[in-house]
Specification:
The chain is α/β, with parallel strands linked by helices and 635 residues long. It has 3 domains: 336 residues, ABC transporter transmembrane region fold (Up-down Bundle), CATH 1.20.1560; 228 residues, P-loop containing nucleotide triphosphate hydrolases (Rossmann fold, 3-Layer(aba) Sandwich); 35 residues. Strands 6-7-8-3-9-10 form a 6-stranded mixed β-sheet, sandwiched between helices. It has a 4-stranded antiparallel β-sheet with strand order 2-1-4-5, covered by helices on one side. β4 and β5 form a beta hairpin. α2 crosses α13. It starts with a helix and ends with a helix. The protein binds adenosine-5'-triphosphate (ATP). Adenosine-5'-triphosphate (ATP) binds next to α14. The site of adenosine-5'-triphosphate has 11 residues, from α14. It is a multi-pass membrane protein. InterPro entries: AAA+_ATPase, ABC1_TM_dom, ABC1_TM_sf, ABC_transporter-like_ATP-bd, ABC_transporter-like_CS, P-loop_NTPase, Type_1_exporter. It holds the Pfam family ABC_membrane. One of its GO terms (cellular component) is membrane.
């Protein structure tokens, strides 16, 4: 049921939400202002929570006031207890019971309101953050490790929920309680009240001097940075575990994770040592306010004649001062937590404030785009901002509509970069990429993505059912359409042999698909999408002979009547391509069909000869092996 609830809500909720969070809640503000801006995303819930929290705190002090009244009734009558008005005492007790019930009830309502606000805000933020990630250029993910972004999405955003649900009502209470407390301290006897204030002020001065200002910001930043670093290296360590095992590395020899854990540990130990003295002083002073009251009491008792009034005030303050600790400790705890959360928000806002891929001001309607060819016109591109090294320099070519254009060239010559510029994973630095007659930057990203299918080098499958993985190509596809796409991609057979057929969840129950099987699922996805342009990136690199055959069959289905850009290292797979673009050092070295390029006797011919030489070399190696074994048998 909850699944449907969210599914049904998605479209409208997400839309309203992106308006609310991306525009209103984007980080114009900083620090505490930003924290409260986010917290008050659901402002009526939060106001209600604040009012009930204040009410709860106010009720929580009623027993102390009544205690004063009880003492006032009992102390003057200690010599003759029959003088005590017992019905009045019973009324006081009833008041105490009622105030306790009301304290709990109002705090419960306050927490209810704050939790509702927290869950809705958390949902909005997470959806918005995920949506924002999808709009960022791929370069952003190069510079920001997956572990760091995961931490923002899980830990930092999650901590905002904690702040709204728990810390906010606590904070309101923590501010209200000291105010009520100080008023009460000063109300019953302002002189003793002032004495009680001295240790409170002293304790806070110690806090401010030790942790206030730039020191605290710097410590928090270092703490979060080292935590981020440790997270990022942990993710890298786990993802690269096969390489680590092969090269016989351990958590000690894999320097990055070892250093980051060590850094974090060192920092925490240093910070703990730094906190030791001021924190001990803070808690000791607040826990021992009576230590300040007793000398005053001794001084006072030698100068007073009204012992009843003295005893009433002295006993009351001794009891009441013990209640000072809890609200002040809470205030310190919540304010420390608040600082950690604010730092987390700053990290989240770095992502929110990163410019998304720019959408056109006046987008072209995709139905009016004439033609589905791809044309690069004098395209230059560098991955680095200083343009120290151009991945592409002045690249021009046209991949004709409905034809296959293959990209070949040495490793690092710029083939993948060309493929990545077509769906605007990055924007060109110079020149233009056209689809038909339209600059791709004049199309809305959604429309551009609808026109292109991409079969990546590393096939990524979601941890969902096979059916849902294929459906990603067309979210409203029927089960029949999914099955037809899977058949065309040569994967229907093996999917039906999985434990739950199309409903088998990938990467669970020991379900592990081979590289070729994963690739065919990706092809099924692309077939279902049925876009006019297909970009195949190293698509046949990992296949075994049987898979290779099936993948080729799947490709035939996928690329029928489409504009295809294909990157392949193995020359025979592109021999029949309509056009071959030979890349060298980010430039087009030559282009043409296979036969034309062979005739040109240029770079392609050299590659082809080299390829044929390897074949002969393999055969001659086999031959020589045969010779050796033949000789061996003769001997
Ligand atoms: N994400 C990146 N960040 C920085 N530089 C990059 C990035 N990706 C590629 N490059 C650089 O851009 C140049 C072109 O790389 P590209 O991946 O396009 O080559 P390629 O021909 O596809 O290589 P391969 O066949 O090995 O995949 C290379 O010098 C490469 O080092």
């Amino acid at each position: 049921m909850s699944q449907n609830y969210y599914e049904n809500q998605d479209s409208s909720f997400q839309k309203n939400n992106s308006e609310a969070l991306s525009e209103d809640m984007r980080a114009v503000k900083e620090g505490r202002a930003r924290l409260f801006e986010i917290a008050f995303h659901k402002k009526w819930h939060m106001l209600a929570s604040a009012i009930f929290s204040i009410t709860s705190v106010a009720f929580s002090f009623v027993p102390y006031i009544i205690l004063y009244l009880v003492l006032k009734e009992i102390l003057p009558n200690l010599s003759d207890l029959s003088q005590i008005d017992s019905s009045l005492l019973m009324t006081y007790i009833a008041f105490i019971a009622a105030s306790l019930v009301l304290t709990v009830a109002t705090m419960f309502i306050s927490l209810m309101c704050s939790h509702l606000a927290a869950f809705e805000t958390l949902y909005d933020l997470k959806i918005d953050f995920a949506a924002k990630l999808a709009t960022l250029p791929l370069g952003y993910f190069n510079q920001n490790a997956t572990g760091k972004l995961r931490k923002v999405m899980d830990d930092n955003i999650e901590s905002i929920e904690l702040f709204i649900a728990h810390h906010f009502p606590d904070l309101v209470g923590s501010f209200t309680a000291p105010v009520v407390l100080i008023l009460l301290l000063l109300y019953f006897d302002w002189r003793v009240g002032l004495v009680c204030l001295v240790p409170i002020i002293l304790a806070y001065l110690i806090q401010i001097v030790s942790f206030g200002g730039k020191n605290k910001v710097m410590y928090l930043k270092t703490y979060q940075d080292s935590l981020d670093d440790m997270n990022a290296s942990a993710v890298e360590y786990v993802r690269g575990i096969s390489v680590i095992k092969i090269f016989n590395q351990t958590v000690y020899s894999f320097k990055k994770i070892h250093d980051s854990i060590l850094n974090y540990t060192k920092f925490c130990i240093k910070y703990t040592y730094m906190c030791r003295a001021p924190m001990t002083a803070f808690t000791t002073i607040l826990n021992n306010i009576s230590f300040f009251i007793i000398p005053v009491g001794i001084w006072w008792v030698t100068r007073t004649t009204d012992y009843a009034a003295f005893a009433l005030t002295f006993i009351f303050y001794l009891i009441f001062s013990a209640s000072v600790v809890s609200p002040f400790m809470k205030l310190m705890y919540v304010s420390n937590k608040g600082d950690v959360i604010i730092d987390g928000i700053r990290r989240m806002d770095e992502t929110f404030n990163t410019p998304s891929v720019k959408e056109p001001d006046h987008p072209v309607n995709p139905n009016t785009v004439v033609g589905r060819s791809i044309r690069f016109e004098n395209v230059s591109f560098s991955y680095t901002e200083d343009h120290a090294h151009n991945a592409l320099s002045d690249v021009s070519f046209e991949a004709a509509e409905g034809q296959i254009t293959a990209l070949v060239g040495k490793s690092g010559s710029g083939k993948s970069t060309i493929a990545h510029l077509i769906p605007r994973f990055w924007d060109v630095d110079g020149g233009v990429v056209y689809i038909g007659d339209t600059d791709i930057r004049d199309l809305k990203t959604d429309d551009l993505m609808d026109m292109i299918s991409f079969v990546f080098q590393d096939v990524f499958l979601f941890k969902q059912s096979v059916r849902e993985n294929i459906r990603a190509g067309k979210p409203d596809a029927t089960d029949e359409e999914i099955r037809a796409a899977a058949k065309a991609a040569q994967c229907d057979d093996f999917i039906r042999n999985l434990p739950n057929g199309y409903d088998t969840i990938i990467q669970t129950q020991g379900i592990h698909l081979s590289g070729g099987e994963r690739q065919r699922i990706a092809i099924a996805r692309a077939i279902l999408k049925d876009s006019p342009i297909i970009v195949l990136d190293e698509a046949t690199a990992f296949a075994d002979p049987e898979n290779e055959y099936k993948i080729q069959e799947a490709f035939k289905e996928l690329i029928r009547e489409k504009t295809v850009i294909m990157i392949a290292h193995r020359l025979p797979t592109i021999r029949t391509a309509h056009q071959i673009i030979v890349m060298s050092d980010g430039k087009v070295a030559e282009s043409g069909a296979h036969d034309e390029l062979i005739q040109k006797n240029g770079a392609y011919k050299k590659m082809w000869d080299a390829y044929n030489a390897t074949l002969t070399w393999r055969i001659s190696q086999n031959e020589s092996k045969k010779d050796i074994s033949a000789q061996g048998s003769v001997v």
